[in-house]
Specification:
This protein is of the alpha/beta class and 276 residues long. The chain is built from 10 helices and 8 strands.
């Protein structure tokens, strides 16, 4: 997005009853649209709309149900002049969302869940976010085994890039996401964040999505070992956004925009040595 400081801020809208931190908050589309408008007013550059939960253990829904959840929200946000990305693993939903005004496809499976996704996005001509992914939510933690998580994630992301290019997606329309929390234990997530410059070194913009995730809850656990609740992880999430910006991230995906906005203002002033 021309003229926008890096990183971009993606505000999250989940139109699902079972997402890990905000499922069920928006039982009708008008409430979700109002929340998206609020997030945009607080500093989100795009609103990432999803209709299917990808939390560990989640079960899949039908494509029709997914579209029924997201399309009215996309319509309302686009009508308000707000850029929208569609968080989906289905080509049919991606196509419908772009037809209704979404400008980016965010596929957490990196095109693996639906073989039609990459050719469809090539035809649509919009950017795609390819996340590192190994399996669907109900079994993904069975795949959280790595000898060298940074090397393996980098190799597997590169393979998704090759598949996207082969499908006809332009190189300058590919964005990568290391997939924090997806088939990864806490130590894997921290290793990937520490090595963010190596992921960026693959040569593509990188989105970091750490907001409110379980590994932050574990880090912030109380003295008895009980994880910090999801809604109480926004401070830590904002710190990650600032550090991701410092290390060259193209975008961050967050639930709480104000804390992220403030953290990024501090990071920019620190980096410049000036608040101007």
């Amino acid at each position: 997005m021309v003229g926008v400081p890096s990183p971009l801020v993606f505000g999250v809208i989940n139109t699902t009853p079972d997402s890990f931190s905000d499922g069920g908050r928006f039982p009708d589309s008008s409430m979700a649209v109002a929340e998206g408008i609020r997030l945009h007013s607080q500093g989100a550059h795009l609103i990432d709309v999803g209709g299917e939960s990808t939390r560990p253990g989640a079960t899949r829904i039908s494509g029709d149900e997914e579209c029924g959840r997201v399309i009215p929200v996309i319509n309302g946000l686009v009508a308000a002049g707000i850029p929208v990305s569609i968080d989906t693993m289905r080509a049919s939903t991606a196509c419908a969302a772009v037809e209704h005004g979404a400008c980016i496809v965010n596929d957490v499976s990196g095109g693996l869940a639906d073989p039609a996704m990459l050719p469809a996005v090539a035809e649509l001509g919009v950017p795609i976010i390819l996340m590192h992914w190994r399996a669907h939510s109900h079994e993904m933690q069975n795949w959280a085994s790595y000898d060298d998580v940074v090397a393996e994630v980098s190799t597997e992301l590169s393979a998704r890039v090759d598949a996207a290019l082969a499908a006809g997606i332009a190189r300058d329309r590919i964005i990568l996401d290391p997939g924090l929390g997806f088939a990864k234990e806490a130590g894997h997530n921290w290793a990937l964040l520490h090595a963010l410059p190596r992921i960026i070194g693959l040569g593509f913009p990188v989105l970091v999505g750490a907001s409110r995730k379980r590994f932050l809850g574990a880090l912030l656990a109380d003295d008895a070992g009980a994880p910090r609740e999801a809604l109480e992880r926004d401070g830590a999430s904002a710190v990650i956004s600032a550090l991701a910006a410092e290390h060259g991230a193209w975008a961050v995906r967050v639930h709480d925009v104000p804390s992220t906005h403030d953290a990024l203002l501090v990071q920019r002033a620190w980096a410049k040595g000036s608040a101007q």
